[in-house]
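Chapter review. Work through the record for NADH-quinone oxidoreductase subunit N before attempting the end-of-chapter questions.
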Amino acid sequence: MTEIGLPPINYGAITPMLILFGASCVGVFVEAFVPKAQRHLVQLVLSLGAITAALVTVVWQADTRTVTAGGAIAIDGPTLFLQGAILVLGVVSILLIGERSLERGGPFVAQAAIVVGSDADRNQTVRQPGATDIYPLSLFALTGMLLFVAANDLLTMFIGLEVLSLPLYLMCALARRRRLLSQEAALKYFMLGAYASAFFLFGLALVYGFTAGTPSGSGDNGGGVDFATIAAAVRNSEVSPALLYAGIALIAVGLLFKAAAAPFHVWTPDVYQGAPTPVTGFMAACTKVAAFGALLRVLHVAFGGASWAYTPVLGAVAALTMLVGAVLAVTQTDIKRLLAYSSVANAGYLLVGALAVNKQGLASTMFYLVAYGFTVLAGFAVVTLVRDADGEATHLSRWAGLGRRSPLFAGVFTFILLAFAGIPVTSGFTSKFAVFGAASGAGHTWLVVVGVLSSMILAFPYLRVVVMMWLSEPGESTPSVLVPGGLTAAALTIGVAATLVLGVAPESLLDLTNRAAEFVP
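Structure tokens for NADH-quinone oxidoreductase subunit N:
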């Protein structure tokens, strides 16, 4: 009888994931045993400490190139770079999540076993102290993101997808204000996310069936879902590729949903609007890095030999995503929905870089992910500061004349919007230049043309907000801009500084992405 043993595991290589997972579990015990008055500080210090420790281990093993856990996890240049990006953006996100000075009790409140939207629900949200279980949920999500970008087979990637998704569904429902909108956002995200996960899992099964029907299948069962086996089957298969193409399509649905690419973007505006704004920023930055990190590994490592088959389809998806995001952003009257459609359009720009399935495309896409992550977190940090008696004032009409009431923060938000528009001396310009250059070099000139056209369209809603803030008269109901607390000020400073530095002097990060742009075989 054959013994089943544990595969060899390089625990040093997976230390960042172990640190975050351990801290997540400790955070659960903190919720159970630490008095309420001390929980916030303990959870904040624990979260920032764990993320920082994980980041240090990522930097420490910068030269590690290995496949471990029975081939399930690959630690290479893209893995370490993307894990580092997720952790750095995670620190900024935790700073926003940890802010408690803008609203009594903070923006989060625990779920209650009562009817949502009822008087009892409204009363308990006013009286309840801030929910601190947001911290272990954030750490669990970050753990899943680190696993997602390191996965070297489809099953491990699916596990990472679920580990990062489930906490996000809960986090979307924890808003203290606009409870019904928050609950609706969480339910929509959960339902559509479950469908996307099912598509991914079905695609996994079809790809396994394809590898099992080829001489290149691994093991006694004749098939496998590890990327090396899939790549070998794609190169050497003599059977019909129908299962392969169907599997690629279904796996792409699951990944493109997480990336907020059209036509799988429909959840994005509602979820971004309804979720607590710090959680929205967390999803817009960290989740997008994780989603595209997984997509890049699948395209380059597993299905690189079939790029001629999927490139036209993904090219059409990229063009549709850019145009849908840009055109629908023009029609928005809520700042969070505007930033949501901006996120959709930026997913299209990232796909343009990803479709250049070469080193330049990989490096430029990774650079774009970092640059966009800092900018979008800074943008949502400003949104948390514009408030009235009912909480955040997100309707664009309320932002009229804001530049006269608070010229400093209106100026900061103007700079952020110009970065989104891709104006020179901002990271938005350098990142778009990088991905468009990679796409042009790979022969996708038509996508560059669509990208430039959509960027021109997308500049209109950004400039409309700028004009409203600076050239419109403030009304009687114009909200005030609160002085940020220390945590929000730190997050905003980091985001704006990174946006400026990566626009003026991007060479260091570009060199780093070029050195990291090589997957292990």
